[in-house]
Amino acid sequence: MKITLITGGSSGLGKEFAKIFLRNGNNCLLVGSNKERIEKARDEVKDVNKDVFVDTFVCDLSDINEYQKLLNYTIEKGYFVNNLVNNAGIGDRCDFKDMDKDKQIKINNLNINAVVYFTRAYLDEMLKNDEGHIINIGSIAAYVPGPYMSTYHASKSYIVNFGMSVAYELRKTNVHMFTLNPGPFESNFVNVAGNHYTFNKIKPMKVEKVAEYGYKMAMKGKVNKVIGFKNKLTCFAPRFFPSRFVAYCSANQMKPKKELRG
Known about the structure:
This protein is α/β, with parallel strands linked by helices. The protein has helices spanning 12-23, 35-45, 67-77, 101-129, 150-169, 189-193, 196-201, 207-219, 229-236, 243-254, 257-261, and strands at residues 2-7, 28-32, 54-58, 80-86, 132-137, 175-181, 224-226. Strands 3-2-1-4-5-6-7 form a seven-stranded parallel beta sheet, sandwiched between helices.
């Protein structure tokens, strides 16, 4: 059975991607770390298209030891993952000297290692069947240094470079990798990351708009896209300024000036 696997599928962007793929006739496997939330998401999206199937799997992808469980589940079920949406991700707004070490490792496991693992795990079958779409969620954070969110910014830089590199390698196949780079959008990310100051300064984009754009660009075979004119400017303009000044501007998006001086 062909199926679209979506990590971080219990809410926000992951759930919106699920609705889009379901409307377009795809079975979906929603993956999340909380059983109650992922089952609630399934119940909310399953009526989008009653002719297709929605499955769930509970898995904490911030724990690298959980990866094999998800892979084994898809193998046991006989699923051919022909669409993979690497959506799960977290951040942490905090001075690096004060950051919890274990949490930073979890951020990298979720934002980087899970993407690499599942992309590689499902790529062989995609190539064998000569079809597949892999959508990775990057961020405009990938294009600028991120004082006070250093691990998150660095992890998204990895995803952008990883995505463009693998997409090039796949260019002569019918398997496509696309990296979507949004700015702030409506989600639970701000509550987990604690960067309310940024979201209060920049009006978040509608999550439905982000998902629709991402799906459209992926199906067109695009490689890497930033959504929104202001976001594109944010990513393009820094190349004309000294890196220290860019870091200063980025820091001002993370903290009030009185905190920066302190």
